[in-house]
Amino acid sequence: xxxxxxxxxxxxxxxxxxxxxxxxxxxxxxxxxxxxxxxxxxxxxxxxxxxxxxxxxxxxxxxxxxxxxxxxxxxxxxxxxxxxxxxxxxxxxxxxxxxxxxxxxxxxxxxxxxxxxxxxxxxxxxxxxxxxxxxxxxxxxxxxxxxxxxxxxxxxxxxxxxxxxxxxxxxxxxxxxxxxxxxxxxxxxxxxxxxxxxxxxxxxxxxxxxxxxxxxxxxxx
Length: 221
Fold this sequence. Notes:
The structure is a single chain. The chain has 9 helices and 6 strands; from the N terminus they run ααβαβααββαβαβαα. The protein is of the alpha/beta class. The strands form 2 sheets. The chain has a 4-stranded parallel beta sheet with strand order 3-2-5-6. It has a two-stranded antiparallel sheet with strand order 1-4. Helix 7 links the parallel strand 5 (160-164) and strand 6 (181-185). The longest helix has 16 residues, at 20-35. The radius of gyration is 17 Å and the shape is globular. It holds the Pfam family UDG.
C-alpha cells in the first residue's frame, strides 16, 4: 500500500506497510477520522518521520500517545503547535533544559526544530480520539513503532535513545545496546518529576557529549 511518508522511511518500512496488521490499522484509522474527531490531523500522523529522514537520524525520544486536547498534537511526541499552552510534561522538559544547558525557557512548544536536526520524536501510538487518552492503543500502532525501533537498531549505529519512564524503557527493549547509546530516567510528567525521577538527568547535555565523541554535530536544543 502507498503511505505518504518521507522517502527514506518508505524504503525502510515498505515491508511493514504491506503486512495485514498494518492494512487493518489504516482501515481503522480512516474510519475513526471519518466518524469522529481525532488527533493529530491526518496529514501530520507521520510528522515525526517527515521531519527526520532516516539517514539524518541521530537521537530517538519515545513517547506514548498523542495529546488528545484540541489543537495540541502535531505528530511529534511531547510537542504542541506554536501558540498552544505547554502541557505539564513539556513544561518539565523545558525546565530541565534550562538547568542542564542554561537555555532560556522557550515561548513555543513546537519541537519540530529538534526533529529537523535528526531527533526522531516517536510516539508508540500515532493517533488518538479527541478527549480519550489511549483510545487507539492495541490497534497495531505499537507493532508498527516496535518495527521502526528494530529497523533503527539494526540498520544504524551510534544512535542516542532517550527512554523516559517505564513505558519507554519497555519499548526500547529491542535496542542493541552494543552499538547504540541508551539513556534512561523517570518520565517528565509531574507525578514522576515531583518524586525526583526526572529533574537532573542532564539528558540534553549528555546526548550532545555523546554526539561530540562520535564526531557528529550536536543538537541545538
